[in-house]
Fold this protein.
Amino acid sequence: MCHRGIVKISNSVDCPSEIEVVANWYFNEWDHKDSEATLENVIEKVSSISNRTAFVAHIDGELAGAGELKYREYSDYPSYNHWLDGIYVPIEHRGKGISTALIEFAKSKSIELQIPAIYLRCEEHLVKLYESHGFQVVCVEETKFIMEFKVNT
């Protein structure tokens, strides 16, 4: 039988030495597409605790994923203020239940913070993953799906 390890989720503020690794993941996956973005900007953003709760996943003590729950105002979505963002698991750790642990941590944190609903933007291939965690598509942009999870219903 294969030992899959136990996923442990921690607040990023408790793991400051890993902020740069997470920032590199985010920059390489998403932020590099923005010509204005720099790795230093992403490190600064990931380091910030203003309007956000960042968290990381470890499996057998190794950094294996990250995510954020943040308050953000979008003019396109004026009533959608709490966003699940940055759920990322590096390729070598995919298929181990890490994204599930990150998503469930964010949902329980939302309950704790008494947030009525959380939203996310994702690509089509991720819709089924989030639906399996209770999210529903509420809007479709050109290539992105806006999904909602009603926390305190």
